[in-house]
Amino acid sequence: MTEFLQSDFWLNILLPLLEVVGKILMVSVPLMISMAMLTYAERKVIASMQLRKGPNVVGPFGLLQPFADGLKLFMKETIIPTKANRVMFLLAPMITFALALLGWAVIPFSEEFVIANLNVGVLYLFAISSLGVYGIIISGWASNSKYAFLGAIRSSAQMVSYEVSIGLVIVCVLVCVGSLNLGDIVHAQAGGLSHWFAFNIFSGGFPLLPMFVVFFISGLAETNRLPFDLPEAEGELVAGYNVEYSSMAFALFFLGEYMNMILVSAMTVVLFLGGWYAPIDCDLLNVIPGGIWFILKICACLFVFLWVRGTFPRYRYDQLMRLGWKIFLPLSLLWVVLTSGWLVFTHSLPNL
Q: What is the pTM of this model?
């Protein structure tokens, strides 16, 4: 046994592999539970806004309702349309769910904990988010249904439109940091609330608050959340790209949407809200672990997701596209130019 623990196979291959698997489980298992509880939180928050009770029967305060819903979906039969492409039909929800999980590989939860500390973490997130549209397109095409296909086309056009704005917003942050590493982006916001990129105007930086707003609204559109849930407009397309799905296949789409909500919230925290840093740089608040601050900020962003759903009506599709192409795209492009020009003019370019 001692010889095995000292062998090259254990030290160079097996031990690093077990360490990575352990990190993945430490992220993915709580994330799955968080997704389930987010569905409960959403129903409770919206019920409170509408003066209803929400889930309150299954378990104490209705806390077991998400698990009852999951069990119900697991027990149901998976129905595949007769003329559907069976392989692609079942593959589509798996792609959507897997890509929503893969994005978490580069998210830094604290200064010490990240699964993969890539120097090109931002590019990795760009790649993962760009691939997300394939699961939706494949599901619409493989269902062999005009309603599902129309919903998939709508969703792909919407996601591509707002990804452009998201990319330019992130460029504004990158030119201020000079790095594609997500940990470096968080380190650049050390020093309290006034140094976070969402509020850096108070510390003499170029104001990125408008880009914070654009990023968050674009995140709503990217995740197909109200008021931008046009791909699932039940009044026009029955239920959009997932109309033919049932049982666990539908659950994977459903969970993928909520996973993307949490991922967009985490990206918002990393890019604009100081990551794992406390709002005030003092010894009292710095005692609280960075991971706790990170989770609390994600919860705050998720509450705004739910708040928006309970407040705003659904956009028309032409309004959705006009907002993306005629307002957000020119504004974010202008802000890239202004941010870069200000950094050059004030000799504030980061040392690369």
A: 0.89
